[in-house]
Amino acid sequence: MIAYLHGFNSGYDRNSEKTKACAKIDDVLEIEYDSFDSHDRILEFLLNKLQPHAFDLTVIGTSLGGYYAAYIVTGK
Predict the structure, then answer these.
(1) How far, in Å, CA of 23 to CA of 40, rounded?
(2) For the segment 32-76, what is each residue's pLDDT rounded down to a tens digit?
(3) How much is the pTM?
(4) For labeling, which of 8, 15, 37, 39 is most exposed (least CB within 10 Å)?
């Protein structure tokens, strides 16, 4: 499964080219988060959404979503 995290002031769009490309590889986990929320609240929200899929998950993103993807994967 692939978790695609959208960028700042954006949203999850299953019809975007990025999402369609991911769907050709694996199932895509739809995650919509408030990019205007605080870092800690966004991280907590994302971790709660991702936890049930933790053993079969690739986390990617663009812009702010890329930052959170890297933070989640590396812990930094």
Answers:
(1) 29
(2) 999 999 999 999 999 999 999 989 999 999 999 999 999 999 987
(3) 0.90
(4) 15
| pLDDT value at residue 24 | 97
Q: What integer pLDDT is reported at residue 6 of this predicted model?
A: 94
Tell me how far apart the alpha carbons of residues 64 and 68 are, in angstroms, rounded to a whole number: 6
Nearest C-alpha neighbor of 69 from the set 41, 37, 38, 47: 47
Q: Looking at the chain, how many residues does it have?
A: 76
Cα 29 from chain centroid (whole Å): 8
The answer to whether 32 touches 3, Cβ cutoff 8 Å, is no
Question: Hey, is 29 helix, strand or coil?
Answer: strand
DSSP structural state of residue 25: H
DSSP 8-state code for residue 6: P
